[in-house]
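[agent] plan:
  1. take the single chain provided in the ticket
  2. run structure prediction with default settings
  3. attach C-alpha cells to the ticket
  4. add a short note for the reviewer (M.T.)
[agent] executing step 1
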Amino acid sequence: MSILLRISQWLSTYTSYFIIAIAVITFFVPEIFQWVKGNVQSCILGFIMLTMGLTLTMQDIRILVARPWDILIGTCSQFTLMPLLAWTLTIGVGYIGIEIPKPIVVGIILVGCCPGGVSSNIMSYLCKGDVAFSVGMTTASTLLAPVVTPLLILFLAGEKVEVDAWGMFQNILIVTLLPVTIGFFCNLFWGKNTHFKQVQTVMPAFSVLGLACIVGGVVAAVHDKLLMEGVPFFLLVFAVVVCHNSCGYFFGYTVGRIFGFSKAKNRTISIEVGMQNAGLATVLSSTFFAISCPLAVIPCAVSCAWHSISGTILASWFAARDKKLTNKENIFQK
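[agent] step 2 finished; step 3 output follows
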C-alpha cells in the first residue's frame, strides 16, 4: 500500500508529463493502446468518475445547498462561456473569412459543452483556491451534464453534423452520473473504514492511469488519419485548443471579479471554467461521431493532455505569485 501511495502521489504531481509521455509513445507505437475503444473506453471513463465520487462527502452536498449563489454563477459561467468561446473560435471566425475544418469545429464544441474536469479540484488546492467551491462547481456541472451537454452540442453543432442528443444523454448518465453517485454512497457508508480510506488515497493514481489509457486509445485510433492530415492540421488543432482553454481561464477569472469574489474564489472559478472534462468529450466523439466526423476526436484528445498541462502551469503561477508577494511583505516589514 505504501508503494501504491507513493506512485499515486507521483502521478498526481506529474500528471501532465505522464499524459504527454503516453501520447508521444502511443504515436510511435499505436499498438499499445488499440484495445482502448468502444465500451472499454466508456468503462474507463466511468471508473475515473467513480474515483471522483469516492471523494464526495455529505459536507460537499451541504456546500451545494449552503452556497447556491456561488455555485449558480460558476456553473452558468461554465456552460455559457466555454461553449460560446468554442463557437466563436471555430464557427464565428467564418464570418471574417477564416474557415476552420469541420473536425476541429465539432471536437472543440464537444469539449466546450462538457462539465468541469475531474483534476480541477487538485489545481484549486495547489494554488490555494477555494477547494470547497471547486468541488461544488465540479459536482453541480457533472450532475447537470446529462441534460445540458447534449442540448448545447445539438444547438451549437447540430448544423454541422447529426447529433444524437438522446443517446448522448443516456451515455453521459451511465458514464458520469451513475459512477459518481455510486462512489458518493460508498464513501457515505464506508468513509470511516480504515481499509476504505487506504483505497481512497491510491485512487488518484488509477484515475490518472485511466485518463492516460483514454488518451492513448484516441491517439492509436486516429494515428493513421492524423499522419494523412499532416503537421499543419495538428498545429491548427493545438492553436484552437490553447486559445479556447486560455480564454476560459481569463473570462472565468473576470466573472469572479465582476461578482466581487475573493481572490481564492476567483482562482477557483478561473480553473473550473477553463478546465473541461475532455475525457468525456473524447468518449462522446468516439461514440457518436466516429462515422460522421471521425477526426473530431483529435481536438478532444489534445485537450485531455493540454488542460492538465495548462492547469498545472496556472496553479503554479498563482502559487509563485503568492510567494513573491509574501517575500515583498516580509522585506517591507523588516
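[agent] step 4 note for reviewer: The chain has a mean pLDDT of 82.
[agent] ticket updated
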